[in-house]
Amino acid sequence: MNAPRVSVVIPTFNRARLVGLTIDSVLAQSYRDMEIIVVDDGSTDDTPQVLAKYGDRIRAIRQPNGGMNAARNAGIAQARGEYLALLDSDDLWLPFKTALQVELLDRFPQTGFVFSEFFILRDDSGTAGERQPRGLRSWYSGDFDWAAFYLRNWRARDLALQTPADADFGVYQGCVYERSLDEPTVLPSTTLIRRAALDRHGLRLPVDDNSCGDWEFFARLSRLEGALFCDLETTLNRSHEDAVRLTRVDPRRRLALRIAMIDRVWRSDGEFMARNAAAVERLESRLLHRLARTQLLYSDAEAARGSLRRAGELERGRRSAADWATFCAAHLPGSGPALSTLRRLMSGRG
């Protein structure tokens, strides 16, 4: 049996209500040379029954619950395709997504992956909810000039791409590694990845960090193999809350994982630090103060003191008024006025 060109990996956990719609959006793709691998990460709902209805149209793998990235890696290990797509089990693809991205990776054989803009779907069940365009840009404050961060760019018409309804849009080639220090840049469900690019470096998603793991993965892959950004919405990303959303992770843990990722990726990159040490230290200091404030609101003064000590080492003694309020509250446990001041400052910022 010939291997398909594209392997679609869908990790899922307790999303019996949504995963079928996600699979249907893959089956509706105009591009057909694909396999669909669904990794059931130990679901306790009706997910196995939903998957069984698809028969041999999908390959369903069931494993003990190990988290999103462990499930993604399990799917990658089973994939046979030249190209890999990671699709979350609550997201949906527009019908042209795979065909367009296969064409782009075929055109740019030295590029590791392509990703795109997406719609935010204001609906928790079907596919006909309100669609907010430019979802990726909603992650950033202010306008983001993609051209400023990429080596080369074109218009879709200049490349003679087969596009939906003759749409014209920008295609940017370059690297998102530096940009990813400050903000995540890639929604995994919008991507198509060259399998050989992963295998060259033994790169997989970190299984001990489901909060920032894909952020780290795509930053590293971009640095090693380059990226293409397609400035067109190809994917619907649900704006909803359920029991398995990463936004439900304790905010202290999310901040701690982000700081650990910065240490692991950018701070350990000597070449990057030679040029950007001040920016890395400013960012980490800011995150450590945010972590200390959060730890205080959870009445964890000892942890807050530890966060502030490390921030002080990075700052070399410079603190803002808000940081001094945090510092006082951390070092004077039970100090009502200091904690009240802190809360007012946080409320004013938010």
Commentary on this structure:
- Helix 9 packs across helix 10 and helix 10 packs antiparallel against helix 11.
- The chain folds into two domains: 240 residues, Spore Coat Polysaccharide Biosynthesis Protein SpsA, Chain A (Alpha-Beta Complex), CATH 3.90.550.10; 99 residues, no CATH class.
- 41% of the residues lie in helices and 18% in strands.
- It is α/β, with parallel strands linked by helices and 350 residues long.
- It is built from eleven helices and eleven strands.
- The protein is globular.
- Helix 1 links the parallel strand 1 and strand 2.
C-alpha-based Rg, rounded: 22 Å
CATH fold call of the largest domain = Spore Coat Polysaccharide Biosynthesis Protein SpsA, Chain A
Overall pLDDT, averaged?
Answer: 89
Number of helices: 11
Main sheet specs: 11 strands, mixed
Q: What is the CATH class designation of the largest domain?
A: Alpha Beta
- Count of individual beta strands: 11
Order of helices and strands: EHEHEHEEHEEEEEHHEHHHHH
Spell out the CATH superfamily of the largest domain.
Answer: Spore Coat Polysaccharide Biosynthesis Protein SpsA, Chain A
Detail the poorly predicted runs. Answer: none
Number of domains: 2
Class by alpha and beta content: alpha/beta
